Amino acid sequence: MAASRIVIENCAIATVDAHDTEYASGHVVVADNRIESVGAGRAPAGLERVVRRIDGTGHLVTPGLVNTHHHFYQWITRGLATDLPLFDWLVALYPVWARIDEPMVRAAARGSLAMMARGGVTTAMDHHYVYPRGTGDLSGAIIGAAAETGVRFTLARGSMDLGSSDGGLPPDFAVESLDGALAATEETIDRHHDTASDAMTRIAVAPCSPFSVSTELLKQGAELARRKGVRLHTHGSETVEEEAFCKERFGMGPTDYFESTGWLGSDVWMAHCVHMNDSDIAAFARTGTGVAHCPSSNARLAAGIARVPDMLAAGVPVGLGVDGTASNESGELHTELRNALLINRLGGRGESALNARQALRLGTYGGAQVLGRAGEIGSIEAGKLADLVLWRMDTLAHASIADPVVALVFGAAAPVTLSLVNGRTVVEDNRLTTVDEDAIARATRSEARRLARIAAEG
Fold first, then answer.
1. If you ran DSSP here, which 8-state letter would residue 408 be given?
2. Residue 16 · residue 365 · CB < 8 Å
3. Please, what are the averages of pLDDT over each run of 10 residues along the chain (458 residues)?
4. How confident is the model at residue 3, as a pLDDT?
5. Phi, psi angles (nearest 5°) of residue 282
6. Nearest Cα residue to 370 out of 309, 313, 315, 290
7. In the chain, how many H helices and how many E strands?
8. DSSP letter string over 166-193?
9. Which among 24, 52, 26, 55 is positioned nearest to 38, based on CA atoms?
10. Residue 201: exposure state from Cβ atoms within 10 A (0-12, 13-18, ≥19)
11. Is the CB of residue 115 less than 8 Å from the CB of residue 451?
12. 3-state secondary structure at position 153
């Protein structure tokens, strides 16, 4: 059967391809779920089965944004412990999080996904690592919410097995056993991981962090991931306290510790990586280990400024992450484009640290690299999957900024006129088309209140 086509014309285009090709006025043609053509001027004449033709005057088309680190369940604990550093923040919130159940997780996932999708995210991920006993199918609830929203998705099936009685940070009642965590992770891979090139759902193996998992869980988790052919994800080098923990407990810093457990490689990406020295960055570059940069969360928790310009210069793959909405209450990725640029300019490289196009690349192609999907998404090129965003740039918010990419990154959040995922419309005229935003807001408020009551009762 002949392909159905969507044609977008008369718009500025930032392809984020290898040459950063841009068009001041160009076209994109989508055929079914793939990009058929992109170029200057009007679309080719004589196209058949055009089901929609969009005049993109006053708009910018970019690849869809790719989020590389998040904790969806935290949507229902936003606004708590706002003035604490990471370890104290975790200690304050673990007892609350340990009381989540399937309805709470489903509502929180729907809220997190809706907020990201309506702001231009077309590929999301969730690092979920809190699995209280007897609380239902939490992974299934998250994956179902992503399918309902219509975004491309990676579930990083997390785990914790190092409770406070064994020297870890989480309370004992919030952790799984080593064997239980590994078995549940393998089951999640077997049930949900899709290896197809246009897959909407993939699974990664994701023990939480050095201070919440045992060395054996890291080692066996890495072995499991490689046996199953999936990627690996964890938190790394987020705070000075984490570095001190690793040196005291393992006699080495986080990067050396991860390498000793098999956790460096081109199939691995880590969140934060704030406190990295030159040798750490060199190890990541040598092994192709990726980084999920989360500037808003790092600032919110006063963790520090990651050395993103140095990582990029060394060849480390770097994408952007929202992080959990209990440490980034805005819950959307456009903020991270802007904050990555601004915060990194406070580091040692000053105004040369990042520019607007580098920030956009972090949020698109860089994220695709980190998730192992750069051959399929992250840039606008013929043959790639049709994950695109049409940003409206002619409103008051951006009217006096001539460069649309500068306007998108430096300016206020731009309205999303159209967002396509796999060629399907997910957002139109700044509203989600796949789910009811207002109903999601009501449900998340209700579940947040229920969790607060349960936590207060102990």
1. H
2. yes
3. 90 98 98 98 95 98 98 96 91 91 98 98 98 94 98 98 88 91 98 98 97 96 98 96 93 97 98 98 98 97 96 98 95 96 93 97 98 98 98 96 98 97 98 97 97 91
4. 84
5. -65, -40
6. 290
7. 15, 17
8. GT-SS-GGG---HHHHHHHHHHHHHHH-
9. 26
10. middle
11. no
12. strand
- The answer to whether 62 touches 36, Cβ cutoff 8 Å, is no
Tokens of 427: 């957002």
Query: Taking Cα atoms as reference points, which of 222, 323, 312, 308 lies closest to residue 273?
Result: 308
pLDDT score recorded for residue 87:
87
**What Rg value do the Cα atoms of the chain yield, rounded?**
21
Tokens, residue 225: 């991931």
Q: Give yes or no for a contact between 425 and 386, defined as CB atoms under 8 angstroms apart.
A: no
| Cα gap 407→396, rounded to integer Å | 11
Return the structure tokens found at 452.
């607060």
Residue 376 sits at the vertex; the CA angle it makes with 373 and 378, to the nearest 5 degrees, is 75
**Tokens 């076209």, residue located:** 27
| Angle (nearest 5°) at CA 63 between 339 and 344 | 20
pLDDT given at position 171: 84
Q: Are strands 5-14 and 50-55 parallel, antiparallel or unpaired?
A: parallel
For the chain, what percentages of helix, strand and coil (3-state, to nearest 5) are there?
40, 20, 40
Global confidence as pTM: 0.97
Q: What is the pLDDT of residue 168?
A: 85
State the SS3 of 340-361.
HHHHHCCCCCHHHCCCHHHHHH
The pair phi, psi for residue 29, each rounded to 5°, is: -115, 125
Vertex 287 angle, CA 283 and 291, to 5°: 75
Q: Any idea which residue has 């072995």 for tokens?
A: 223
> How many angstroms separate the most distant Cα atoms in the chain?
70
Element (H, E) at 425: strand 424-428
Distance CA 63, CA 325 (A): 24
Give the pair of three-digit tokens for residue 141: 């609830």
Nearest to 154 by CA among 340, 360, 376: 376
Q: How many residues does the chain have?
A: 458
